[in-house]
Write a structure and sequence with these properties.
Layout lengths: L6 E6 L6 H12 L3 E3 L18 H6 L2 E2 L12 H15 L5 E5 L3 H9 L9 H26 L1 H4 L7 H14 L17 E7 L3 H18 L1 H7 L14 H8 L5 H24 L4 E4 L5 H14 L2
Parallel strand pairs: 1-4, 1-5, 2-3, 2-4, 5-6
């Protein structure tokens, strides 16, 4: 049973902001484990494009939810919540702390606030929902969602095909509109939660993202993408880095354009993460110009002050 003397330290922030190094140093200082909150790092076979922790980093601190699923396996924020809430009591038998590191904001919110209980989606329903997008495009999704759940249609981002597919498949599986299952009720957690993130100005963050994309290409992102190209229909690969490489392989764009598009789309994703973070008043921001040791000590001081 989790008790109030246990603490979950969340290191979040936009992609490329330095979350991994910070979380590892904190976990080493506290002697605790790290739980990845990244919806793509959980899959095997794609460590470069997902900027997964290196083998050395994984050896430095015990990690969870990194390279644990095959690319064709289904996963969701709801399952992540359930898995984390099951794991934390085990980790806290030996340590009062655990570190969660990642930028998948829905995963973090699922653990912090809870998530509505939704039905597991059968492979058949998932295929039917995705077929709407594959055969009819985003307009087909909009029409299907308007028919099956007009309330959610009125509030969803109609350019976000993933969210529309998600709502359609849940509505089809449950037999009721997705919106009717969304309670928005916040769950109480029997442990302390402290959130931290680096605060970059936009130009500095975008420069880091551009440099990281260049590094990924040097590390072999093209070869990694080719190794999973035959699985390009899977949702796990419907993400920045692989989509652009697949377009290059399909001769839809040339190599330089694909690499530039990866950087651009990563920057767009980072802006969405920042927008999400601005709505969260619980995040304490750290200065990236300060030394790593200084920021680790700042977090440790906050932990001691909150005891």
């Amino acid at each position: 049973m989790c008790t109030s003397d246990k603490t979950l330290i969340i290191i979040t922030g936009p992609t490329g902001s330095g979350k991994t190094d910070l979380s590892i140093n904190i976990a080493r200082e506290l002697g605790c484990h790290i739980l990845s909150a990244d919806s793509r790092q959980i899959y095997r076979a794609i460590p470069i494009g997902t900027a997964a922790p290196s083998p050395q980093q994984l050896d430095a601190v015990p990690h969870h939810f990194v390279a644990t699923l095959e690319l064709n396996e289904y996963y969701s924020a709801a399952r992540y919540e359930a898995d984390v809430m099951s794991l934390l009591p085990e980790l806290w038998r030996d340590n009062d702390y655990a570190v969660m590191c990642g930028g998948s904001m829905m995963y973090i919110d699922a653990v912090v606030n809870g998530i509505d209980e939704l039905p597991d989606i059968s492979p058949e329903i998932r295929a039917q929902a995705m077929e709407i997008y594959t055969s009819q495009g985003i307009e087909g999704l909009r029409t299907a969602l308007r028919d099956i759940d007009p309330e959610y249609y009125g509030m969803v981002d109609l350019n976000n095909h993933k969210r529309m597919v998600h709502a359609i498949e849940i509505s089809m599986q449950a037999g009721v509109p997705y919106s009717s299952l969304r309670t928005g009720a916040k769950k109480s957690r029997p442990f302390r939660i402290l959130k931290f993130a680096y605060q970059y100005d936009r130009e500095a963050l975008f420069n880091r993202i551009n440099a990281r994309v260049d590094k990924m290409m040097e590390q072999g992102l093209e070869a990694e993408a080719r190794s999973v190209y035959h699985l390009r229909h899977l949702n796990a690969l419907n993400t920045v880095g692989y989509k652009e490489m697949f377009a290059y392989f399909d001769e839809i764009m040339d190599y330089d354009t694909a690499v530039a598009r990866i950087a651009k789309n990563t920057r767009v994703y980072a802006k969405k993460q920042i927008t999400w973070m601005k709505r969260d008043a619980q995040i304490s921001y750290l200065n990236p110009d300060d030394s790593l040791d200084h920021n680790v000590n700042t977090i440790i001081s906050r932990l001691n002050a909150n005891q």
